[in-house]
Amino acid sequence: MTSTSTATTDGPPGHTPETEADPARAKKERIGRYVAMVLLPFLMVGMMITGYLATMHAPTPHDMPIAVAGPAPQAEQFADALAAENPSAVDVRVVATDADARQLVLDREVAGSVVLSDPGEGSATVYTATAAGASQVGTVTGLLAPEVVGQGLTLQTEDLAPLPDNDSAGLTAMFMTTALMLAGYMPLSLMLSNSPELLRFRRFVPILAGWSALIAGLVWLVAGPVLGAVEGNTAVILGISWLAVFAVGSVQLFLTRILGPMAVLAGMLFLMVLGVPASNMGMSVHTMPSFYTTLHSFLPTPATGEALRSVLYFGGDGVGTHLTVLVVGTLLALAATLGIDALKRRRNPDAGTPEVTMQSLTAGPRPASNRIRYATLAFFPLGMVVMMISFMLGAMYQPAPQDMPVAVVAANAEQAEQAVGGLDRSMPGLFDLHASDSVDAARAQVEDRTVVAAYVLPSAENPSATLITNEAAGVSQKQVVERVFGQIATGQQVPMSGETVASLDAGDTMGTVSLYVAMGWIMAGFMIVIVASSAAPMVMGLRKLLPVIAGWAVFMSVVVWLIAGPLVGAVDGHFLPLVGAGIVAIVATALFTTVFVRLLGLLAVLPVVAILMFLGVPASGGALSIYMEPAVFRFLHDVLPMPAAVESVRSILYFGGDAVGSHLITFAIWGVISLLCVVVIDRVRPLPAAEPVQAPAPDDAAVEVAARI
């Protein structure tokens, strides 16, 4: 690769700098900037959405390890029948005793186990560990229960490692891990672009050690004392967190040495796109393609998550294996970096520090003081980490129904009111119950998402209770009402049947496709402006920017549909409505981002990502019902772009587009107000005139531009 140093003005009088005398190279520089402006956000959005949709839109068990114990002939027969019924879904092993089966579950060597009683007793006990993965428990039970019942046995279940009350969703380890990964890889590209002198090995390693300690303390502080999601094990958690950030930073330093500014893409690929699905945190790795089981054994995201899980829920059992992965990765990365540095010095002993390609992270000039520049440099990733774990973990670590709207239907209004009063007294604050005397009216409310469910009391015509739900409107809230009202029906000593007004498609078994499609739109909207402001500032004038945003919105809306539809198979059809809604969402998000870019420069990422993602995702209802989160997210659900995007996709996929109009109005309001703000800002503080381009060598144009991200 050719040198990227800029031309100097040294030379005889009248000498013209090369960059001014070579318009062809300046043209190549401009083209390189345009390419980077489109290519980088395209790759980032494409990788994220493809990776998440491909692995999580319809998770299916693959070689899920299951242990079987019991009387030898019976256990062998059960294991053979289970494997024959689910040939690719399970990896069955027969063990000698009940104690062996239990210990394998606690050691997380198997996802679950079943212990058969003596033939005369006719029962079977399924052991699981919710702390090893709540979603995994449902998968294991779904595999084992039909076989147990099919053999005429009585099913019993036991949770060997339930989640603690302070972390009832088991998401603390996942969000802590995500924050630590973000802190490890994000600062490196900023350093390379803004303060490359900090990346000298002897200077960087102690900086990384201190940064790792700071991040470890902050993540623990938020998750522990502030939110209460973590109790005890302070020293061990701090140590794991420090090691995780230091390991990721060390590997990212190595990637920066060999890939330059493009290392951020490699970090995102291995830590987030591949690392999150392989982590076994949100979903069982055994429901992913087998490739992810291999990744689970050596990537830092799974190693960190499993180490934290071991300490938080299993008394530290097995933590050494995962820490070894981080330690070995750190040592190899640092050794490789030293080797590359030595090789470069041998080839070019006079090579200096890489060129500064991002003068300032703010909308103002480069700070004269190094202290201010370094403080700003640290503030950027620090703010991202703190906001991410505070907002995301704070919203979802203790999901519980709060004023969840449910209709209670009886034969007449008086009976319905009496039932509502009794239920309110027995479940204060959990549900917002509405009395109704019409099953059809209640069913319509469930279908239009006015209420989450309708509980129909027994009547003379129908002696059983009926629970009407809407699976397509949210899996988590459906599961909650089924569990709670199933218990109510049991207490009333009446059977309960279920009815779903809208079921999920086969390509969207978790109901999260709408969230990932919406994330694609929102990310595309803010990424194009963030990247353009650094890589191609010449397009940031409003007259040039508006056509760029419009064209980009059309392009990326089609790309997201192609990923979700033909490529992954999560969406079937709906091309025009999804692409149309996506265009509006991307344009509105891009205009909103432009406001903050005008005011803050690259630091605009902090408020933009906080509003659109860290608050937007919990408020969207795409992953967890808004009625199971703090009440503020119900308000945000009605005003933020991410919820509007999720509900638009959900409405198009499952409800004939019944609510798209209102959400398009939300986007229009955000877009119009943002556009007006940009116009006002430009009048008060006009954009600076474009400076003459000083082009790097043409072979490196795109890489040099990428360094600005």
What does this structure look like?
The protein contains 26 helices and 10 strands. The chain has 709 residues and is α/β, with parallel strands linked by helices. A hairpin with an 8-residue loop joins strand 8 and strand 9. The longest helix is centred in the first third of the chain and has 34 residues. It is globular, with a radius of gyration of 28 Å.
Question: What key attributes describe this structure?
Answer:
709 residues; alpha/beta; five-stranded mixed β-sheet; 26 helices; 60% helix
The class by helix and strand makeup works out as alpha/beta
Strand content: 5-15%
Backbone shape? globular
Radius of gyration: 28 Å
Largest sheet, described in full? 5 strands, mixed
Which blocks of ≥5 consecutive residues have pLDDT under 50?
Answer: 1-21, 691-709
* Count of strand segments: 10
Helical content (DSSP H or I, runs of 4+): 55-70%
Query: Between the first and last Cα atoms, what is the distance in angstroms?
Result: 20 Å
Mean pLDDT over the full residue set: 88
Number of helices: 26
Strand order of the biggest β-sheet: 2-1-3-4-5
Furnish the topology, listing elements before pairings:
Layout: H1 18-21, H2 23-56, E1 64-69, H3 72-85, E2 90-94, H4 98-106, E3 112-116, E4 123-128, H5 134-150, E5 154-159, H6 172-194, H7 201-226, H8 234-259, H9 263-273, H10 275-278, H11 290-295, H12 300-313, H13 319-347, H14 370-396, E6 404-409, H15 413-426, E7 431-436, H16 439-447, E8 453-456, E9 465-469, H17 475-491, E10 496-500, H18 513-535, H19 542-567, H20 575-600, H21 605-614, H22 616-620, H23 632-637, H24 641-654, H25 660-684, H26 701-706
